[in-house]
């Protein structure tokens, strides 16, 4: 008789796979600061104003790559979308512009200024003008003033 040797064969290994999702979110964040416009002493010619220009700034710091838009409202003392500074019951019209040539008025209804954050402070200049030829009343010690709301959407 010949002995029969039996070798145990290893069991076939079974495998199974599954997806292992990995995700992360980096939310855009922004901060906003504003330095207002001070027209100072407005020049006069008789009973009307001389053109007086000044600038202010809005400083935006947003997450790198995060988009933003900045809008200005029409101020507390606007009449028919015309911004006005007020001293007592007297008003003095002024405009805010997006460009140094003061060709594009930055109204509450105008398209906002947009940008892309780079994680550093970005300064947006706001250009102001009191037009020549406006009638005025002396402020009698109370400066003409207005408040414009700056809104950033990101």
Could you explain how this protein is built, in words?
With 154 residues, this protein is an all-beta fold. The chain contains no helices and 11 strands. The chain has a 4-stranded antiparallel sheet, with no helix packed on it. It has a 3-stranded antiparallel sheet with strand order 9-5-11, with no helix packed on it. Strands 2-3 form a two-stranded antiparallel sheet. A hairpin with a 2-residue loop joins strand 6 (84-87) and strand 7 (90-93). The chain is rod-shaped and about 135 Å long. It starts with 29 loop residues before the first strand and ends with a strand.
| String of helices and strands | EEEEEEEEEEE
Which class of secondary structure composition applies to the elements?
A: mainly beta
The separation of the N and C termini measures 89 Å
Helical content stands at under 10%
The whole-angstrom Rg is 32 Å
The major pleated sheet works out as: 4 strands, antiparallel
| Count of DSSP H/I helices | 0
Largest sheet strand order: 1-4-10-8
Number of strands: 11
Gross geometry: rod-shaped
Query: Low-confidence runs (pLDDT<50, min 5 residues)?
Result: none
Mean pLDDT reading: 90
